[in-house]
Design goal:
- This protein has 309 residues and is mainly beta.
- It has two domains: 171 residues, no CATH class; 83 residues, Immunoglobulin-like (Sandwich).
- Helix content is 8%, strand content 40%.
- It contains four helices and 24 strands.
- Strands 3, 4, 5, 6, 10, 11, 14 and 15 form an eight-stranded antiparallel β-sheet that branches. A five-stranded mixed β-sheet has the order 7-8-9-13-12.
Length: 309
């Protein structure tokens, strides 16, 4: 068990999207660089401890979560959409993150399997065994040291559990915590607030979470599709085009991009098929989310993309 110190004060003002965004935030394999052996004797004991740990192979040398080997190749990962599809039982998961109540940018908080970074990074790996899912939370030191973390579980937005997280260090500066819900659960959230604060619509939580099952849209949420076209390194734009489905009120659409929000990006009263919005100054690797606001304070994710050129 490792000692962790509190690095910041929990915030308690301003987020309305945390409950509505169950599919927002990439998964990548970590490095497979060979570790250099040390000729000093004590490393032999450390190696024995690592081999004896049942989770030792879950994190490869170089701080990469070896997820597919960890669950015996029982899933596939859509790296761009932060989506995990489990084969048996057939289930889909979405990973998401918020930083201080807003969309996490790549230089503040990441959800990915490569934990060898100075940016706080975590990955949640669902494992099915003996009829239940266990959610393995892997995190690097910047993430672990950022806050006193809590694990919250929900079933259809109703709370099913809350507990304080105590991370155990594995190796390569990667730590681990497992969440095995005692009740039926379709949403696991690791957050720097308690449950009461998290559920306060005025709170600004930092979150890494995982949602099980395809999101069921509420009545009145548009059924619409978009395409993304990326510019070049010298012209780093993104063109977002409405390609089919419902017409949208332009002022109800917002784009969230690496911590900044762009309201009414189409700048028209009604967004219909073939209408295009151009977003300037979008760096490669950025995460872009298209949000629809229903007028009652709720935001819904319509589309998302990672910008690669």
């Amino acid at each position: 068990m490792i000692d962790r110190t509190r690095r910041r004060t929990v915030a308690a003002t301003g987020c309305a999207l945390s409950g509505a965004l169950a599919g927002c935030t990439g998964a990548f394999f970590g490095s497979d660089d060979d570790a250099e052996p040390d000729d000093d004797g004590p490393n032999d004991a450390e190696s024995d401890d690592k081999d004896a740990d049942p989770l030792a192979d879950a994190v490869a040398d170089g701080a990469g979560v070896n997820y597919l080997a960890f669950i015996d190749d029982g899933a596939t990962v859509d790296e761009n959409r932060r989506r995990i599809t489990y084969s048996d039982p057939e289930t889909e998961f979405s990973l998401f993150a918020l930083s201080d109540g807003t969309f996490a940018s790549t230089d503040t908080l990441q959800v990915r399997r490569d934990l060898s970074t100075d940016v706080m990074t975590a990955f949640i790996a669902p494992e099915f065994d003996d009829g239940v899912f266990t959610y393995h939370v892997f995190a690097n030191d910047p993430f672990v040291e950022y806050a006193d973390w809590n694990a919250l579980t929900f079933e259809n937005r109703e709370s099913t559990g809350e507990r304080r997280i105590t991370f155990d260090e594995l190796h390569d500066d990667v730590s681990h915590f497992a969440v095995t819900p005692e009740r039926e659960t379709n949403n696991v959230v690791v957050t720097d607030t308690d449950r009461e604060t998290y559920e306060d619509p005025e709170s600004e939580p930092t979150i890494v979470g995982i949602s099980r099952g395809r999101r069921t849209e509420r009545e009145g949420v548009p059924d619409v599709s978009f395409t993304f076209e990326y510019g070049t390194e010298t012209d780093p734009t993104v063109e977002l085009t409405h390609t089919g489905g419902d017409s949208l009120e332009g002022d109800r659409i917002a784009i969230h991009l690496d911590g900044r929000s762009i309201s009414d990006p189409f700048a028209v009263e009604s967004v219909t098929t073939d209408e295009t919005a151009v977003i300037d100054d979008v760096p490669e690797g950025s995460r872009l989310f298209v949000i629809y606001h229903d007028g009652d304070g709720n935001g819904y994710l319509l589309a998302s993309a990672t910008v690669w050129r």
